[in-house]
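Input sequence (637 aa), recorded before submission:
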Amino acid sequence: MEEKKYEHYDAQNIQILEGLEAVRKRPGMYIGTTGPAGLHHLVWEIVDNSIDEALAGFAKHIEVEILKDNIISVTDDGRGMPVDIHPKTGRSALETIFTVLHAGGKFDGNSYKVSGGLHGVGASVVNALSEWLEVTVSRNGKQYYQRYERGKVMCDVTESGVSEHTGSRVVFKADPLMFVETTTYSYEILRDRIQQLAFLNKGIKLTIKDSRNEEVVENVYYYEGGIRQYVEYLNNGKKLVSPKIIYCDDEKDNIQVEIALQYNDTYSSLIYSFTNNIHTHEGGTHEEGFRLALTRCIKNYANANNLLKKDEEITNEDVREGLVAIISIKHPNPQFEGQTKTKLGNTEVRAIVSQCLGEVLDRHFLENPNEAKAIIEKCLLASRARVAARRAREATRRKSPLDNLLFASKLADCRCKDPSKSELYIVEGDSAGGSAKSGRESEYQAILPLRGKVLNVQKVRLERALSNNEIVSLIQAIGTGIGEEFDISKARYHKIVIMTDADVDGEHICILLLTFFFRFMPELIEKGYIYVAKPPLYKAQVGKVVRYAYSDEELEAFKKEFPERKPDVQRYKGLGEMDPEQLWETTMDPALRTLVQVHLQDAMIAGQTFEMLMGEDVDPRKNFIQENAHYANNLDI
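Predicted structure, token format:
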């Protein structure tokens, strides 16, 4: 029997992973994933060490460079990593840092007041997951060098020269055996984070350079104003409700609190929180303290100055509309939820942030009454819209598709009631919807055709969105509700597929739908429920041989297979041109279709991108198009 090989189980079956073997055996435990996000995470682990030197007051300039062959170099002008012999390991402290897990200067409380790298695994994990890594240290008038390959020491720490300055340089090449998906870095991802770090650490210069091609690209960031300039950057081009940036910079119980906020006239909010430069995108106690103080101070001022009418109320939801805020705290001993560090859990932070911000807000409102009244009027408009939206939201609630006859006539539901096996295809137009309904597998595939282009929800308040029939149909079909009522456990389908024409209009509709999901149902994206179908551009046929081509290159490759015959080529201008069998075979059959799963790698960058591409302000969008037009292809001209 096959099972017998598992019967032997004693001490010799217990495997001990020594040194950095554990990292290479289970890299996901240390960097989350070996996909593109994990690849870039390697850079941040080394950069964070240099930032810690800067926070301690010893480094002023940090340089990150992508060299040829996607080799990363990180240089700082800090003190230089220690190279003397470590008392416990008997090896150089430099070697200990790069070869021993949980070894670093973050634990003794003396080397660094605050730090983003709390677990001491950063440098050693990068070393373990690199094909090779070299570190050069300038310290004590000398230069020291050591090389590692896949975590193993290739030479002792050696003096390699003299130096008139101090600092550290780490150069590494990610191991393709570990990062099988890709070892190619995105300059934009690195640039965005480097700029963000410059905003969060005022007075520190950060340089990012891409030297992979003949034309070297370089960006230098330095912000004396720190997060105040960050808020200015995020509000650039928007009409401001409050012309002054409200700024808080205080310290209590060794916890530094820095907050900058400002209101604009849009309907969405951008509230980003950080702890020791780590983006806590799930929030935590610092965001809770921020919301408590903001809501309390606005309500108190409104009540004290009789700015509220009878039965009017300002809630936490109302004070967020049009708000851009950066919350940055520096904590000597932050407690995060897990190694991913996405939510701050220190309970003492809530009261400290609330008190620090509350004092600044109360004083600012007293000194700037006109601005205070403008902010409160903005909140009141949001409050009235919230009441209207609550009434409109009633229309989106349902127990079954038959609750709404108009909706029931649009949705062709599937027979399966298990959400994990059910798929919803959102289809552009009634013609394509008809083909999809006829060609689908009705046991588990539901079809929802939408008429025309969906409303751009980035430019409107919630109650306006809820007055749109297509938006209401979407919400009813998915079943989760939206906003504060959103409940992902009520999702009726775990695979929601956007299926639009393979042309410019189809791409636009796809982006409009993604904007809707990002603003009102981001958890669906985070859970991996949202997909984009990729229909073919061409049907090519030679005799009985039929091939569907998804690009011009695929079509040309097919033609080359039959050099002596001219294939019969049909260009699909829309899904409605396909008969049900073709649509099933090319775009809906799980065995043959191509679906692209939508991921949310960085909610902050995604939010800024949606605002740039879909928001009210035209100039940023125009600039983006001009800068990136040369990348465009497959345009129907």
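Checked by second reader. The CA atoms of residues 35 and 233 lie 30 Å apart.
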